[in-house]
Protein backbone atom coordinates (compact mmCIF):
# COMPACT_ATOMS: atom_id res chain seq x y z
CA UNK A 1 0.00 0.00 0.00
CA UNK A 2 1.33 3.44 -0.96
CA UNK A 3 2.41 5.88 1.74
CA UNK A 4 0.26 8.50 0.06
CA UNK A 5 -0.11 10.56 -3.10
CA UNK A 6 2.43 13.22 -4.03
CA UNK A 7 1.97 16.02 -6.55
CA UNK A 8 5.43 16.77 -7.93
CA UNK A 9 6.35 20.04 -9.64
CA UNK A 10 7.87 18.40 -12.70
CA UNK A 11 10.21 20.12 -15.15
CA UNK A 12 11.17 17.14 -17.27
CA UNK A 13 14.83 17.60 -16.39
CA UNK A 14 17.30 15.31 -14.67
CA UNK A 15 16.59 16.43 -11.10
CA UNK A 16 12.81 16.16 -11.04
CA UNK A 17 12.85 12.94 -13.10
CA UNK A 18 15.14 11.36 -10.51
CA UNK A 19 13.05 12.80 -7.68
CA UNK A 20 9.96 11.24 -9.20
CA UNK A 21 11.63 7.82 -9.40
CA UNK A 22 13.00 8.20 -5.86
CA UNK A 23 9.58 9.09 -4.44
CA UNK A 24 8.14 6.01 -6.12
CA UNK A 25 10.96 3.92 -4.62
CA UNK A 26 10.05 5.39 -1.24
CA UNK A 27 6.53 4.07 -1.64
CA UNK A 28 4.54 7.06 -2.85
CA UNK A 29 2.12 7.38 -5.75
CA UNK A 30 3.31 10.36 -7.80
CA UNK A 31 1.42 12.71 -10.10
CA UNK A 32 3.47 15.09 -12.22
CA UNK A 33 2.43 18.74 -12.48
CA UNK A 34 3.62 21.28 -15.02
CA UNK A 35 2.42 24.84 -15.53
CA UNK A 36 2.63 26.59 -18.87
CA UNK A 37 3.75 30.08 -17.88
CA UNK A 38 5.13 30.94 -21.30
CA UNK A 39 8.31 28.86 -21.38
CA UNK A 40 9.55 27.17 -24.53
CA UNK A 41 8.76 23.54 -23.76
CA UNK A 42 7.70 20.33 -25.47
CA UNK A 43 4.84 19.64 -23.10
CA UNK A 44 3.83 16.36 -24.70
CA UNK A 45 7.40 15.08 -24.43
CA UNK A 46 7.38 16.06 -20.74
CA UNK A 47 4.11 14.22 -20.23
CA UNK A 48 5.47 11.11 -21.94
CA UNK A 49 8.67 11.24 -19.88
CA UNK A 50 6.77 11.60 -16.60
CA UNK A 51 4.67 8.55 -17.37
CA UNK A 52 7.82 6.59 -18.31
CA UNK A 53 9.32 7.59 -14.95
CA UNK A 54 6.34 5.97 -13.24
CA UNK A 55 3.90 8.83 -12.70
CA UNK A 56 0.31 7.77 -12.10
CA UNK A 57 -0.85 10.83 -14.01
CA UNK A 58 0.40 14.10 -15.47
CA UNK A 59 -1.35 17.46 -15.18
CA UNK A 60 -0.56 20.38 -17.48
CA UNK A 61 -2.16 23.75 -16.70
CA UNK A 62 -2.05 26.71 -19.08
CA UNK A 63 -1.48 29.56 -16.64
CA UNK A 64 -0.11 32.18 -19.03
CA UNK A 65 -3.08 34.53 -18.81
CA UNK A 66 -3.27 34.66 -15.03
CA UNK A 67 0.53 34.96 -14.88
CA UNK A 68 0.50 38.01 -17.14
CA UNK A 69 -2.67 39.65 -15.82
CA UNK A 70 -2.28 38.92 -12.11
CA UNK A 71 1.50 39.03 -11.64
CA UNK A 72 3.42 40.66 -14.50
CA UNK A 73 1.13 43.61 -15.23
CA UNK A 74 0.64 44.51 -11.54
CA UNK A 75 4.45 44.38 -11.19
CA UNK A 76 4.69 46.89 -14.04
CA UNK A 77 2.03 48.99 -12.31
CA UNK A 78 4.13 48.99 -9.12
CA UNK A 79 7.44 49.55 -10.97
CA UNK A 80 8.59 46.47 -9.06
CA UNK A 81 12.33 45.81 -9.19
CA UNK A 82 14.67 44.04 -6.76
CA UNK A 83 17.95 45.73 -5.87
CA UNK A 84 17.46 48.33 -8.61
CA UNK A 85 17.97 45.91 -11.52
CA UNK A 86 16.22 42.53 -11.28
CA UNK A 87 12.67 42.56 -12.69
CA UNK A 88 11.63 39.53 -10.65
CA UNK A 89 10.70 37.19 -13.49
CA UNK A 90 11.22 33.99 -11.51
CA UNK A 91 9.71 35.43 -8.32
CA UNK A 92 6.58 36.47 -10.21
CA UNK A 93 5.98 33.01 -11.65
CA UNK A 94 6.13 31.09 -8.38
CA UNK A 95 2.83 32.31 -6.82
CA UNK A 96 0.77 31.35 -9.86
CA UNK A 97 2.48 27.96 -10.22
CA UNK A 98 1.95 27.29 -6.51
CA UNK A 99 -1.72 28.17 -6.84
CA UNK A 100 -2.08 25.79 -9.76
CA UNK A 101 -0.43 23.05 -7.73
CA UNK A 102 -2.66 23.57 -4.70
CA UNK A 103 -5.76 23.42 -6.90
CA UNK A 104 -4.48 20.23 -8.54
CA UNK A 105 -3.58 18.70 -5.17
CA UNK A 106 -7.09 19.37 -3.87
CA UNK A 107 -8.68 17.98 -7.03
CA UNK A 108 -6.61 14.77 -7.07
CA UNK A 109 -6.61 14.21 -3.32
CA UNK A 110 -2.83 14.51 -2.94
CA UNK A 111 -1.89 15.11 0.67
CA UNK A 112 1.75 15.79 -0.28
CA UNK A 113 3.50 18.06 -2.76
CA UNK A 114 7.15 17.98 -3.76
CA UNK A 115 9.60 20.08 -5.75
CA UNK A 116 13.17 19.96 -7.00
CA UNK A 117 14.41 23.25 -5.54
CA UNK A 118 17.91 23.20 -4.07
CA UNK A 119 18.58 23.84 -0.40
CA UNK A 120 20.59 26.98 -1.21
CA UNK A 121 18.10 28.75 -3.45
CA UNK A 122 15.20 31.16 -3.12
CA UNK A 123 12.60 29.02 -4.85
CA UNK A 124 12.22 26.48 -2.04
CA UNK A 125 11.08 29.34 0.20
CA UNK A 126 8.84 30.94 -2.41
CA UNK A 127 7.05 27.72 -3.26
CA UNK A 128 6.57 26.46 0.26
CA UNK A 129 5.39 29.76 1.74
CA UNK A 130 2.88 29.97 -1.11
CA UNK A 131 1.77 26.37 -0.51
CA UNK A 132 1.13 27.01 3.17
CA UNK A 133 -0.56 30.35 2.52
CA UNK A 134 -3.00 28.70 0.11
CA UNK A 135 -3.47 25.28 1.72
CA UNK A 136 -2.26 25.26 5.33
CA UNK A 137 -2.76 21.51 5.75
CA UNK A 138 -0.54 20.54 2.80
CA UNK A 139 2.56 18.42 3.51
CA UNK A 140 5.78 19.18 1.64
CA UNK A 141 8.52 16.75 0.66
CA UNK A 142 11.70 18.66 -0.23
CA UNK A 143 14.26 16.01 -1.31
CA UNK A 144 17.21 18.40 -1.52
CA UNK A 145 16.80 19.04 2.22
CA UNK A 146 16.51 15.35 3.13
CA UNK A 147 19.94 13.91 4.11
CA UNK A 148 19.17 10.45 2.70
CA UNK A 149 18.56 12.06 -0.68
CA UNK A 150 21.21 14.75 -0.94
CA UNK A 151 23.95 12.50 0.44
CA UNK A 152 23.07 9.79 -2.04
CA UNK A 153 22.91 12.19 -4.98
CA UNK A 154 25.76 14.52 -4.08
CA UNK A 155 26.82 15.09 -7.70
CA UNK A 156 25.44 15.04 -11.22
CA UNK A 157 27.14 11.74 -11.94
CA UNK A 158 25.15 10.04 -9.16
CA UNK A 159 21.92 11.38 -10.62
CA UNK A 160 22.91 10.22 -14.10
CA UNK A 161 23.73 6.73 -12.83
CA UNK A 162 20.40 6.53 -11.01
CA UNK A 163 18.54 7.75 -14.09
CA UNK A 164 20.25 5.09 -16.19
CA UNK A 165 19.35 2.37 -13.68
CA UNK A 166 15.71 3.45 -13.86
CA UNK A 167 15.63 3.75 -17.63
CA UNK A 168 14.98 7.47 -17.44
CA UNK A 169 15.85 9.15 -20.77
CA UNK A 170 18.22 12.04 -20.07
CA UNK A 171 19.96 14.44 -22.41
CA UNK A 172 23.00 15.77 -20.57
CA UNK A 173 25.60 18.02 -22.16
CA UNK A 174 28.60 20.01 -20.97
CA UNK A 175 28.42 22.39 -23.91
CA UNK A 176 26.10 24.73 -21.97
CA UNK A 177 27.45 24.79 -18.41
CA UNK A 178 24.75 26.89 -16.76
CA UNK A 179 21.18 26.38 -15.57
CA UNK A 180 18.13 28.18 -16.94
CA UNK A 181 14.58 28.97 -15.90
CA UNK A 182 12.20 30.39 -18.49
CA UNK A 183 8.74 31.90 -18.48
CA UNK A 184 6.88 34.64 -20.35
CA UNK A 185 8.49 37.35 -18.21
CA UNK A 186 12.11 36.31 -18.73
CA UNK A 187 14.73 33.63 -18.90
CA UNK A 188 17.37 33.33 -16.18
CA UNK A 189 20.87 31.91 -16.36
CA UNK A 190 22.96 30.97 -13.34
CA UNK A 191 25.51 28.51 -11.94
CA UNK A 192 28.30 26.82 -13.87
CA UNK A 193 30.65 29.26 -15.58
CA UNK A 194 28.55 32.16 -14.29
CA UNK A 195 29.56 31.47 -10.69
CA UNK A 196 32.68 33.53 -11.41
CA UNK A 197 31.22 37.07 -11.27
CA UNK A 198 34.04 38.34 -13.50
CA UNK A 199 33.45 35.75 -16.23
CA UNK A 200 31.92 37.31 -19.34
CA UNK A 201 28.73 35.46 -20.29
CA UNK A 202 29.31 33.45 -23.47
CA UNK A 203 27.59 34.95 -26.50
CA UNK A 204 25.87 31.66 -27.22
CA UNK A 205 24.26 31.69 -23.77
CA UNK A 206 21.77 34.42 -24.64
CA UNK A 207 18.83 32.46 -25.98
CA UNK A 208 16.02 34.97 -26.52
CA UNK A 209 17.50 38.33 -27.53
CA UNK A 210 19.48 39.42 -30.54
CA UNK A 211 23.01 40.53 -29.73
CA UNK A 212 22.56 44.33 -29.55
CA UNK A 213 25.54 44.80 -31.86
CA UNK A 214 23.78 42.62 -34.44
CA UNK A 215 20.31 44.10 -33.93
CA UNK A 216 18.60 46.01 -36.77
CA UNK A 217 20.35 49.21 -37.85
CA UNK A 218 17.03 51.05 -38.08
CA UNK A 219 15.16 52.12 -34.92
CA UNK A 220 11.59 50.88 -34.56
CA UNK A 221 8.84 52.98 -32.99
CA UNK A 222 6.14 51.32 -30.91
CA UNK A 223 3.21 52.73 -28.92
CA UNK A 224 2.03 51.49 -25.51
CA UNK A 225 -1.21 52.61 -23.85
CA UNK A 226 -2.02 52.32 -20.15
CA UNK A 227 -5.26 52.44 -18.20
CA UNK A 228 -4.85 53.00 -14.46
CA UNK A 229 -1.22 51.96 -14.76
CA UNK A 230 -1.90 48.67 -16.54
CA UNK A 231 -0.91 48.04 -20.18
CA UNK A 232 -4.07 47.85 -22.29
CA UNK A 233 -2.96 48.45 -25.87
CA UNK A 234 0.19 48.13 -27.97
CA UNK A 235 0.75 49.21 -31.55
CA UNK A 236 3.70 47.49 -33.18
CA UNK A 237 4.52 47.41 -36.87
CA UNK A 238 1.11 48.77 -37.76
CA UNK A 239 -0.72 46.05 -35.81
CA UNK A 240 -2.72 46.70 -32.64
CA UNK A 241 -2.88 44.34 -29.64
CA UNK A 242 -5.41 44.67 -26.83
CA UNK A 243 -5.62 41.13 -25.46
CA UNK A 244 -3.26 41.00 -22.47
CA UNK A 245 -1.46 37.82 -23.49
CA UNK A 246 -1.08 38.84 -27.13
CA UNK A 247 0.04 42.33 -26.08
CA UNK A 248 2.76 41.10 -23.77
CA UNK A 249 4.06 38.46 -26.17
CA UNK A 250 4.14 41.00 -29.02
CA UNK A 251 6.14 43.49 -26.93
CA UNK A 252 8.43 40.62 -25.94
CA UNK A 253 9.01 39.67 -29.57
CA UNK A 254 9.83 43.16 -30.82
CA UNK A 255 12.06 43.83 -27.81
CA UNK A 256 13.99 40.63 -28.35
CA UNK A 257 14.50 41.49 -32.02
CA UNK A 258 16.20 44.73 -30.98
CA UNK A 259 18.28 43.17 -28.17
CA UNK A 260 16.41 44.91 -25.35
CA UNK A 261 16.36 43.64 -21.76
CA UNK A 262 19.66 41.89 -21.03
CA UNK A 263 20.70 42.02 -17.37
CA UNK A 264 23.79 40.75 -15.53
CA UNK A 265 23.77 41.18 -11.74
CA UNK A 266 25.00 39.84 -8.43
CA UNK A 267 22.00 39.73 -6.12
CA UNK A 268 21.45 39.01 -2.45
CA UNK A 269 19.47 35.82 -1.98
CA UNK A 270 16.94 35.46 0.78
CA UNK A 271 19.05 33.02 2.79
CA UNK A 272 22.04 35.39 2.84
CA UNK A 273 24.12 34.14 -0.08
CA UNK A 274 25.11 36.29 -3.02
CA UNK A 275 24.31 34.89 -6.44
CA UNK A 276 25.26 35.98 -9.94
CA UNK A 277 22.41 35.86 -12.43
CA UNK A 278 21.92 36.87 -16.05
CA UNK A 279 18.47 37.58 -17.42
CA UNK A 280 16.62 38.46 -20.61
CA UNK A 281 13.37 40.33 -19.90
CA UNK A 282 12.54 42.28 -23.06
CA UNK A 283 8.80 42.87 -22.76
CA UNK A 284 8.87 43.59 -19.05
CA UNK A 285 11.77 46.02 -19.49
CA UNK A 286 9.93 47.95 -22.21
CA UNK A 287 6.60 48.11 -20.36
CA UNK A 288 8.25 49.24 -17.14
CA UNK A 289 10.17 52.00 -18.94
CA UNK A 290 6.97 53.17 -20.65
CA UNK A 291 5.03 53.10 -17.38
CA UNK A 292 7.63 55.17 -15.57
CA UNK A 293 7.59 57.64 -18.45
CA UNK A 294 3.82 58.05 -18.25
CA UNK A 295 3.89 58.43 -14.47
CA UNK A 296 6.22 61.39 -14.87
CA UNK A 297 3.46 63.14 -16.81
CA UNK A 298 0.41 62.14 -14.78
CA UNK A 299 1.42 61.38 -11.20
CA UNK A 300 1.66 63.82 -8.32
CA UNK A 301 5.16 64.05 -6.89
CA UNK A 302 4.26 63.22 -3.30
CA UNK A 303 1.98 60.34 -4.30
CA UNK A 304 4.85 58.99 -6.38
CA UNK A 305 7.23 59.12 -3.43
CA UNK A 306 4.85 57.10 -1.29
CA UNK A 307 4.21 54.64 -4.10
CA UNK A 308 7.96 54.24 -4.66
CA UNK A 309 8.35 53.23 -1.02
CA UNK A 310 5.49 50.77 -1.36
CA UNK A 311 6.88 49.47 -4.65
CA UNK A 312 10.21 48.69 -3.04
CA UNK A 313 8.48 46.81 -0.24
CA UNK A 314 6.29 44.94 -2.73
CA UNK A 315 9.38 43.93 -4.71
CA UNK A 316 11.05 42.52 -1.61
CA UNK A 317 7.93 40.61 -0.62
CA UNK A 318 7.77 39.08 -4.10
CA UNK A 319 11.45 38.15 -4.04
CA UNK A 320 11.26 36.66 -0.55
CA UNK A 321 8.17 34.58 -1.32
CA UNK A 322 5.52 36.42 0.70
CA UNK A 323 3.05 37.04 -2.13
CA UNK A 324 0.18 35.40 -0.22
CA UNK A 325 0.98 37.15 3.07
CA UNK A 326 -1.33 39.72 4.71
CA UNK A 327 1.31 42.45 4.38
CA UNK A 328 1.66 41.82 0.64
CA UNK A 329 -2.11 41.99 0.19
CA UNK A 330 -2.08 45.29 2.06
CA UNK A 331 0.79 46.78 0.05
CA UNK A 332 -0.85 45.80 -3.25
CA UNK A 333 -4.13 47.37 -2.17
CA UNK A 334 -2.29 50.62 -1.34
CA UNK A 335 -0.48 50.80 -4.68
CA UNK A 336 -3.58 50.50 -6.88
CA UNK A 337 -5.17 53.89 -5.93
CA UNK A 338 -1.93 55.65 -6.89
CA UNK A 339 -2.52 54.58 -10.49
CA UNK A 340 -5.96 56.14 -11.04
CA UNK A 341 -4.49 58.94 -13.18
CA UNK A 342 -1.87 56.86 -15.02
CA UNK A 343 -3.78 56.81 -18.29
CA UNK A 344 -2.34 57.61 -21.69
CA UNK A 345 0.08 56.65 -24.43
CA UNK A 346 3.85 56.35 -24.54
CA UNK A 347 5.89 56.23 -27.74
CA UNK A 348 9.20 54.39 -27.63
CA UNK A 349 12.06 53.84 -30.05
CA UNK A 350 13.78 50.46 -29.87
CA UNK A 351 17.37 50.41 -31.09
CA UNK A 352 20.30 48.09 -30.39
CA UNK A 353 19.48 47.13 -26.83
CA UNK A 354 17.79 50.37 -25.86
CA UNK A 355 14.14 51.29 -25.30
CA UNK A 356 14.04 55.08 -25.46
CA UNK A 357 10.93 57.13 -24.73
CA UNK A 358 10.35 59.66 -27.50
CA UNK A 359 6.95 60.99 -26.45
CA UNK A 360 4.04 60.64 -24.05
CA UNK A 361 0.50 62.02 -23.87
CA UNK A 362 -2.41 61.77 -21.46
CA UNK A 363 -5.81 63.33 -20.71
CA UNK A 364 -4.67 63.22 -17.06
CA UNK A 365 -1.51 65.25 -17.64
CA UNK A 366 -0.26 67.43 -14.79
CA UNK A 367 2.24 69.09 -17.12
CA UNK A 368 1.52 72.79 -17.71
CA UNK A 369 3.44 74.04 -20.73
CA UNK A 370 2.84 77.71 -19.87
CA UNK A 371 4.10 77.33 -16.31
CA UNK A 372 7.09 75.28 -17.45
CA UNK A 373 8.05 77.64 -20.29
CA UNK A 374 11.18 79.75 -19.92
CA UNK A 375 9.70 82.29 -22.34
CA UNK A 376 6.85 83.56 -20.16
CA UNK A 377 5.94 84.14 -16.51
CA UNK A 378 2.23 83.61 -17.14
CA UNK A 379 0.61 82.16 -14.02
CA UNK A 380 3.84 82.29 -12.03
CA UNK A 381 5.41 85.05 -9.94
CA UNK A 382 9.23 84.79 -9.71
CA UNK A 383 9.14 86.88 -6.52
CA UNK A 384 7.27 84.06 -4.78
CA UNK A 385 10.38 81.91 -5.03
CA UNK A 386 12.27 84.24 -2.69
CA UNK A 387 10.14 83.25 0.28
CA UNK A 388 10.46 79.58 -0.62
CA UNK A 389 14.26 79.87 -0.72
CA UNK A 390 14.40 81.81 2.55
CA UNK A 391 12.32 79.19 4.35
CA UNK A 392 14.25 76.30 2.85
CA UNK A 393 17.55 77.96 3.80
CA UNK A 394 16.82 78.10 7.53
CA UNK A 395 18.22 74.65 8.26
CA UNK A 396 21.07 75.13 5.77
CA UNK A 397 22.19 78.28 7.58
CA UNK A 398 21.94 76.54 10.95
CA UNK A 399 24.03 73.63 9.71
CA UNK A 400 26.60 75.95 8.12
CA UNK A 401 26.96 77.94 11.35
CA UNK A 402 27.39 74.74 13.36
CA UNK A 403 30.10 73.48 11.00
CA UNK A 404 31.91 76.83 11.11
CA UNK A 405 32.02 76.72 14.93
CA UNK A 406 33.65 73.28 14.67
CA UNK A 407 36.23 74.61 12.23
CA UNK A 408 34.74 72.48 9.46
CA UNK A 409 32.92 75.21 7.55
CA UNK A 410 34.17 77.86 5.21
CA UNK A 411 34.88 77.95 1.51
CA UNK A 412 38.20 76.12 1.36
CA UNK A 413 38.27 73.45 -1.31
CA UNK A 414 37.81 69.99 0.17
CA UNK A 415 38.37 66.73 -1.64
CA UNK A 416 35.30 64.54 -1.76
CA UNK A 417 37.60 61.59 -1.20
CA UNK A 418 38.66 63.02 2.16
CA UNK A 419 35.20 62.23 3.50
CA UNK A 420 35.94 58.53 3.14
CA UNK A 421 39.07 58.60 5.31
Instruction: Show unreliable segments.
Output: none
Task: Round the Cα radius of gyration to an integer and report it.
Answer: 26 Å
CATH topology annotation of the largest domain:
Argininosuccinate synthetase, chain A, domain 2
| Number of spatially distinct domains | 3
CATH architecture of the largest domain: Alpha-Beta Complex
Mean pLDDT: 93
> Which structural category fits the helices and strands?
alpha/beta
Which CATH first-tier class of the largest domain would you pick? Alpha Beta
Based on Cα principal axes, name the global outline: elongated
String of helices and strands: EHEHEHHEHEHHEEEEEHEEHHHEEHH
Euclidean distance between termini CA atoms: 71 Å
What is the strand content? 15-25%
What's the total count of β strands? 14
Instruction: Spell out the CATH superfamily of the largest domain.
Output: Argininosuccinate synthetase, chain A, domain 2
Q: If helices are DSSP runs of H or I spanning 4 or more residues, what is the number of helices?
A: 13
Q: Outline the biggest β-sheet.
A: 5 strands, parallel
Binned, the helix content reads 40-55%
